[in-house]
């Protein structure tokens, strides 16, 4: 597959300068075009050792305006990274809108290396390619321009390159491309590369294979590919994928029996019992290095806050973080909407509690028109993909929706306004949202229908009686943990 | 010292409720007051094992509005933390303005424990206290309300507490407070605690020692102390420290010989030579786990960008990050102005290049009136303290100011406007700043006079000839690294 690209077309210094000068100029213009149109640009520079990836990256930094470019390299892992889903380290380095992220070493490096060394089975490798395709599709759907460059060199060029620099490399410890390690591995590496490129060759995020034998040709070619891809994407920026048609939502909320209740003495007994059970399970999860992600959603006034407090007061403060999701910061607005949740994930063995979550996209953002139909329709799939990233890493996921009746909500709003130390909890907005009850009901039913998955199921909690709801939540959490840990 | 606090005044359930209910109400009001007045609130909960710190933290979370409270615990270190100056992990967890950070385990935990175990000498311990005082003073000067609670328990209460919970603790691995480890260490721990409290007892950030024998008393007392401290601080929020008088600034810029220059052939030869030298030194620094922080400042048009490019193209992309400092994001504006630089520090062995830096505070922010006189005067001391935090961690610091003449600047502005692919670099603002040359000159001279320290000296680079300036910078970097590494 790659051989055809060994065109071997070296450029003379003058040829190079003739093409490089205007190219440089137009690359700068393209860069400013990106800043204006607010697309993030992701450039992946991949290829075999000795293909001159590093040199090319230096050149790109030189040709474009370093303001707004960040080059990311992944070689030494940190335990912060090891302790989270594979994609976390990449999510955290994504360029904000209007800026450029160059990835020298990327989500491709680890699967490829592990497969070459035989540490990754054929199935696992195929799975990695699938997850990469999902990751790139999510970013691209969100407007990211993803340009994937594969620098190809022949075996003897690689040998020459590595050996020329061998002395310096001996002095400068490099990770991947130690010439002695690599000797004789070319064919195997090439075969894996072909698999990798084939497995992640998508219409949306295609690979560009570049003949890297000659430095000058390589650099000009890469620059032209980048320029061309940016311009093509900026032209078609407006075309939107048609929104996928969604099946009718079953009316999950209607099936909830809101009469469930609990008297205070029984509540106190059960609370003590299940809280201490939860405390031990949280420590057991810590011992097993399993993390727990819990999502709390519900109507305004459903009692999310007080229920969460009963959960947190059972867990050692060392083991959990409570994340309150409110309006995004401008750093968050400049990223894919899932970014702000990725960045908050705690390490293995810890619990992350989300008071409101990524589901805002398909509830409030949908109903209030803060997300376009294309965006919130796409979100169902993105959310399922996010949660399966978590569960496939070993994270335990529990999702609660606390449901109350419209009358109960009214009663609670009025009670809150009467109590001085609760008055702050009730705002004009709560009253406005209340008007839109039916719209929210429809959105919630569809949300549950679309995102109720075996590994990340929804638990719809009858919330008219707060005491019952709290116990129900803590017990469900305990059961979920027990099922996963024992 | 502590014994006097063993007042032993248990509260009955009713007494507790009588005091807790109104307290809770007023704590909430105080919390909203903070949100409005935009002070960050930092609550440190410290004390011996078995004093009930965790229980108190749970209670505070319950009493106040969990929105806008983050509880931080420090027990397991990550290598990301170990690889940076001691205070980095705390800077990164500081609450934004208007919000509350509760620190259960804090900058006090490690020095105290290490000193108890005899891993920290008397001198090192005193040094740690000094650095903590500086850290807290910087935050408090910036408006942070810092409340430090020390929970005191008697030896037998501690023993009872720990042994009561021993069985559960056996099941739930806890780090610091293993009852068996602690047995017999009480006196030693108490002595160290007294040293610690004395050594960090400042007027600005005083300790509040609380008799923690009785849970109810402890909680009410802590709540009252917090409430009282917040209210006192909010009243006096407006008083400003008088700006320290600064010595006349020597005219450092005038002493620069701007005629220095280099012809292109010599430039090329030297560039090749010193770049490869720099490349090796960067790898040597990596091998020795020493990090390098380089600051680039200079007049508009002084050629910072092109000089930085010559530096970066010498260093392996794996080893450096170039940080472009532009307008702060809203997450950054909600923090102490040094926060945005702390968060960008790279790991040990890496290079962090700042294109513009914390010196903006005493140049552009001062001249354009973006920082108050009190703020930029204070900044000189804060900057020196920041840099000594870095150097005392082993970081190598190099600071460059590229100086050019006013005529040279004019010539370059005009040249830039003539060149299409450079036009973007020159804006209205550049012309406006140019008007204020004398004001900037004064600020720069004072900056250099105030922040030219033995371990973090300024290098003023003659910049009229770009080629000379680039070589000068790379050579100086090499010398600095050689001095530090060999």
Automatic annotation (TrEMBL), chains A, B:
InterPro entries: P-loop_NTPase (IPR027417), PolyP_AMP_Tfrase (IPR022489), PPK2-related (IPR022488)
Domain Polyphosphate kinase-2-related: 11-232, 262-483
Keywords, comma-separated and alphabetical: Transferase
Pfam annotation, one family: PPK2
GO molecular function: polyphosphate:AMP phosphotransferase activity
Record protein name field: Polyphosphate:AMP phosphotransferase
BP GO annotations: polyphosphate metabolic process
